[in-house]
C-alpha cells in the first residue's frame, strides 16, 4: 500500500504544520447502513466539528506565518474549511437537537451549561416536594373525614368501604386485562 494512503483508501497529505489531513469524506464510510440512526448522525456532526476546529487551527498557523510562498496552502486550507463547513451544515440537517435558549445564554455569559441542568433539577425537586405535600395533606384530610364520618354514620361508612373495595378490585381487574398479552398470558410486573 502506498504510504500516502490510509487503510480506508483515502489520500492522506501533509498539510504543512506537521498534521495529516484525510482527504476522503469521512461521512460516506458508514452512512448506508445507519443513515437514520440519530446517534450515528450526531457522531458524524461531532467529528465534523472536530475536523473544522483542526482546519481552523491549521488556518491560524498559516495566517500567523504568512508570506507570499504560503499563499497557495492558505487558499487550499480556506477551501477545505468551506467544504467542511458545508459538510457540517448538511450533516446537521439530519440531527434533531433542541437546545434551550437559557443554555445558550449561559454559554454566552461565560458560565457552565451544567448550571442550567442543576437549576432545572432543583426546580423539579421543589415542585415534586410541593406536590407530595399536597397529596399527603389530602390523604390526611380523607383519613380524618372518614374517622369523623365513622363516628357519626357507622353504617354508611361501612357501605362506602365495601363500594370502594369492589371498585378497587374492578380497577385491578381492568389493569390486568390491559396488561395481558395477545396470547392471553398476563404480563406480570416484577416488584423488587
TrEMBL record:
<dbReference type="GO" id="GO:0003712">
    <property type="term" value="F:transcription coregulator activity"/>
</dbReference>
<keyword id="KW-0539">Nucleus</keyword>
<keyword id="KW-0805">Transcription regulation</keyword>
<dbReference type="GO" id="GO:0016592">
    <property type="term" value="C:mediator complex"/>
</dbReference>
<dbReference type="Pfam" id="PF09748">
    <property type="entry name" value="Med10"/>
</dbReference>
<comment type="similarity">
    <text>Belongs to the Mediator complex subunit 10 family.</text>
</comment>
<protein>
    <recommendedName>
        <fullName>Mediator of RNA polymerase II transcription subunit 10</fullName>
    </recommendedName>
</protein>
<dbReference type="GO" id="GO:0045944">
    <property type="term" value="P:positive regulation of transcription by RNA polymerase II"/>
</dbReference>
<comment type="function">
    <text>Component of the Mediator complex, a coactivator involved in the regulated transcription of nearly all RNA polymerase II-dependent genes. Mediator functions as a bridge to convey information from gene-specific regulatory proteins to the basal RNA polymerase II transcription machinery. Mediator is recruited to promoters by direct interactions with regulatory proteins and serves as a scaffold for the assembly of a functional preinitiation complex with RNA polymerase II and the general transcription factors.</text>
</comment>
<feature type="region of interest" description="Disordered">
    <location>
        <begin position="1"/>
        <end position="36"/>
    </location>
</feature>
<keyword id="KW-0010">Activator</keyword>
<dbReference type="InterPro" id="IPR019145">
    <property type="entry name" value="Mediator_Med10"/>
</dbReference>
<comment type="subunit">
    <text>Component of the Mediator complex.</text>
</comment>
<keyword id="KW-0804">Transcription</keyword>
Amino acid at each position: 500500500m502506498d504510504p500516502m494512503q490510509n487503510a480506508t483508501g483515502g489520500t492522506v497529505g501533509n498539510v504543512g504544520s506537521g498534521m495529516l489531513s484525510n482527504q476522503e469524506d469521512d461521512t460516506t464510510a458508514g452512512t448506508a447502513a445507519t443513515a437514520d440512526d440519530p446517534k450515528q448522525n450526531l457522531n458524524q456532526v461531532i467529528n465534523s466539528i472536530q475536523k473544522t476546529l483542526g482546519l481552523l487551527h491549521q488556518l491560524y498557523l498559516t495566517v500567523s506565518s504568512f508570506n507570499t510562498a504560503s499563499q497557495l496552502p492558505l487558499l487550499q486550507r480556506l477551501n477545505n474549511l468551506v467544504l467542511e463547513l458545508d459538510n457540517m451544515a448538511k450533516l446537521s440537517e439530519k440531527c434533531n437537537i433542541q437546545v434551550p435558549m437559557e443554555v445558550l445564554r449561559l454559554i454566552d455569559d461565560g458560565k457552565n451549561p451544567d448550571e442550567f441542568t442543576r437549576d432545572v433539577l432543583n426546580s423539579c425537586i421543589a415542585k415534586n416536594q410541593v406536590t407530595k405535600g399536597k397529596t399527603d395533606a389530602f390523604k390526611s384530610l380523607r383519613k380524618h373525614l372518614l374517622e369523623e364520618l365513622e363516628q357519626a354514620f357507622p353504617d354508611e361508612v361501612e357501605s362506602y368501604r365495601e363500594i370502594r373495595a369492589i371498585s378497587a378490585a374492578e380497577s385491578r381487574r381492568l389493569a390486568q386485562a390491559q396488561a395481558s398479552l395477545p396470547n392471553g398470558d398476563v404480563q406480570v410486573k416484577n416488584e423488587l
